[in-house]
Amino acid sequence: MGVPFIPLEGEARMLQRVLQFINTAMKHLLNLIMVVLVVSTFMQVVFRFVIKNPLAWTEELSRYCLIWLTFLGAAYAMSKKAHIMVEFFINLFPPVGRKIIISLAAIINLVFFYILIFYGLQLVQSSMSQLSPVLRIPMGVIYLAIPIGGFFLAVNLIPNLIRDIRKGDEK
């Protein structure tokens, strides 16, 4: 189930293809992160309860994978319009009202995504010197999921907004 392809001209078509490529790459990265998460969690269970000698690094790795999975997954879900939306309320309005409500919701979302990006970058900068306890990864690398996720959420929201405004006349 994908979002319908909007026929565009020139540069807009190229941008759409670039975004589709990025989202496809993100999907594959998410699959890889999920595999690492599942394998590390499985290893933790086996080593803790079967072998009775828990591994220190698997819990931390699983936690960091889950953080990245959450933020990148939200951005990928935005590209597929897979986030929850209450359409019942929106459908009560005429097409012009729908466009206004959808636009206002998008503006509020973009403000939130800007906050994620802006303060996420500050968090990344302030925590680059702090290392994770076991894996010794700079915490800024882990927190980088916040501004990157916010950026891709915003980038994927724009085409969805354009599609929603264009289809507003159909209902």
Describe this structure in words.
Helix 1 runs antiparallel to helix 2, helix 2 (56-79) packs parallel to helix 6 and helix 4 packs antiparallel against helix 6 (145-167). 76% of the residues lie in helices and 0% in strands. The model has no long low-confidence stretch (mean pLDDT 90). It is elongated, with a radius of gyration of 20 Å. The protein contains six helices and no strands. It has 171 residues and is an all-alpha fold. The chain has helices at residues 10-50, 56-79, 87-90, 95-127, 139-143, 145-167.
Summarize the main sheet: none
Identify low-pLDDT runs: none
Q: Secondary-structure element sequence?
A: HHHHHH
Question: How many extended strands?
Answer: 0
Q: What portion of residues belong to β-strands?
A: under 5%
Q: Compute the gyration radius: what is it?
A: 20 Å
If you average the pLDDT, what whole number results?
A: 90
List the total number of helices: 6
Helix content: over 70%
The global form is elongated
Terminal-residue CA separation: 21 Å
- Classification by helices and strands: mainly alpha
Task: Describe the structure using short key phrases.
6 helices; 76% helix; 171 residues; mainly alpha
TL;DR?
The protein is built from six helices and no strands. By secondary structure, it is mostly helical.
Q: Topology, pairings included?
A:
Blueprint: H1 10-50, H2 56-79, H3 87-90, H4 95-127, H5 139-143, H6 145-167
Helix pairs in contact: 1-2, 2-6, 4-6
